[in-house]
Amino acid sequence: MYDLIVIGSGAAGIIAAIRAKQNNKNVLLLEQQSKIAPKLKATGGGRCNLTNTLSNDEFISHFGKNGRFMTKALDEFDYKKLTSFMNSIGISTHAPDGFRIFPTSHSSQTIIDGLNSYMQKIGVDIKCNEKVVQILSQNNKIQALKTVNNTYSTKNILIATGGKGYENLGASGDGFDFARTLGHKVTSLYPAMMPLFTKQTWQGNCTANTIPKAQIQVDIKKHKKLKATGDLIFTKKGLRGPVVLDFAREITPLFDKYDNIDIKINMVKGKNEDDILRFLKEQSLKNPTSTVLEHLEKILAKSVILELSKLVSIDCNVTYKNLKGTKKADFIKILCNTPFTITGHDGFRLAMITRGGISLKEVDQNTMQSKLISGLYFAGEVLDIDGPCGGYNLQWAFSSGYLAGNSIK
User: Fold this and answer.
1) pLDDT tens digit string along 136-174?
2) What total of structural domains would you count in the chain?
3) Among residues 235, 132, 129, which one has the least CA distance to residue 181?
4) From CA 100, how far away is CA 406, in angstroms rounded?
5) What is the CATH number of the domain that holds 16?
6) Distance CA 353, CA 316 (A)
7) 3-class SS at 361?
8) How far is the C-alpha of 305 from the C-alpha of 302, rounded, in Å?
9) How many CB atoms lie within 10 A of CB 205?
């Protein structure tokens, strides 16, 4: 008989197992893969951006309308407590840019090894290659669970299986299936935090450049309020970079309604057409022999300028004075509002995060326990909360897992 069985060995599951064991509970951690934390290993490109330095209120504000659900979890285990815990088990951390916090090794394996060693030290029972197939309850109380190989008795189960993203690392969405079977509502699920494919191909000639502070906006009448700002990176197939990874969560649900999604991107640091016109005139007065290309290189990558000039059939290797006719207006317009058509994405195959999840209305935010089934808990990405790049989702996983583990009676 276990006091707690945790399904899933990601950040949420591991910290929950640790906290419950620290409270002298008998804990079993189950992982269907051959090693623990397969998705954690891939986090942040393997560098593992653990969290960030925002205050709890600022942190919550980046999660939209569902953010307030996180209040108790963050109060119990915020970034300061997380980094303090990591340091206490021998994992040093730092924030090289003053915002994002990484292990000083910049290796997710450091985090995994440290957590694994600590779990072994305090006596968490860990079983890998153990796939859960059924959760058993009676009279709305948890009784046991079945795996492919065994049946385990327990009064408390934590579903910390993550979302559906990174299917190649074993994500299958089985946590959502368990929740539905037990009567919980699961909101619509969409892949998020991933690159997007475009109809356009010219950006494939600009893959060496990062466009800072690019502004993206959906160019569909009903959805123009959907916008984001951040660093943009071009790929041969489309768009990526932090702004696109964050914005993908707004795009993927639109494919339920539209075959393609038109967007526009401002790549000139938010300047509008009047600003660009004024900028070119001012630069021309200062340097009358310089070309339009040379002027614009001060605010945009050369490769992008050349590609945009081709789109409107204009020669930007001339002085501003020699930039004539309606082509000049077309060029300035496309600089400020570069059109792209999003044609698709890779689905859950490479999605780092899942948008949607178990309805928060059916979960007690003060304990992470189900309001429907006594002894059933949830933590991390399996819930209907997702945030942007920058350590937000991993901190939420640790915070919610800690709160769940601390709530086991």
Assistant:
1) 999 999 999 999 999 999 999 999 999 998 877 778 899
2) 2
3) 132
4) 26
5) 3.50.50.60
6) 41
7) helix
8) 5
9) 15
